[in-house]
Design goal:
Layout lengths: L1 H5 L3 H5 L10 H14 L7 H15 L5 E2 L4 H10 L2 E2 L13 E5 L5 E2 L14 E5 L3
Parallel strand pairs: 1-2
Antiparallel strand pairs: 3-4, 3-5
C-alpha cells in the first residue's frame, strides 16, 4: 500500500477500476505456515506472500480467482492452498515441490526452513526437492 502512495499513482488508481486491498491476517498467516511446510518460506518476499493471501481471501469470499505468475515458489504455495493458477510459458512440466533444507558438507537435513548454517560443520545450508 505504501508503494502506491509513494509513486504518485494513488490518485490515478482511485479513478480507475483497480481495487487495492490488504490481505487478512489469517490468510497471511496461513500462507506463511504452508510456505514453511513446503520449504518456500525463504523464497517468498512480503509482496509474494501478500498476493497469495489476497487471492486466498478473494477465493474464500466466493470469487473466481486465477493467480497469474511464473514464480515457482508462489505457484507452489498457491497450489497447496487451492488457489487457481494460470498456465504459464515456463518450459517443462509443473509439479508441486516440497523442499528439504540440508547441508552440502555433512548431508544433515533440517526440518527448520529458517536455519541458514549447519550446526554440525558450519557450512551454509542449501535446499533440494524432497524425494517422493
Amino acid at each position: 500500500m505504501d508503494e502506491v502512495g509513494s509513486r504518485g499513482i494513488g490518485a490515478q488508481l482511485i479513478h480507475s477500476r483497480v481495487q487495492v486491498t490488504e490481505p487478512s491476517k489469517e490468510s497471511l498467516q496461513k500462507v506463511k505456515q504452508v510456505s514453511a511446510k513446503t520449504g518456500d518460506l525463504k523464497s517468498l518476499s512480503e509482496a509474494d506472500a501478500s498476493i497469495i493471501a489476497v487471492s486466498l481471501d478473494l477465493a474464500s469470499a466466493g470469487g473466481d480467482v486465477t493467480l497469474v505468475t511464473d514464480d515457482f515458489a508462489v505457484r507452489n504455495v498457491a497450489e497447496v492452498l487451492g488457489v487457481g493458477l494460470s498456465e504459464t510459458n515456463v518450459r517443462g512440466e509443473w509439479k508441486q515441490i516440497t523442499w528439504i533444507t540440508y547441508c552440502k558438507g555433512c548431508r544433515k537435513e533440517y526440518s527448520d526452513s529458517k536455519a541458514t548454517v549447519c550446526d554440525v560443520c558450519g557450512t551454509k545450508l542449501s535446499r533440494k526437492p524432497k524425494s517422493s
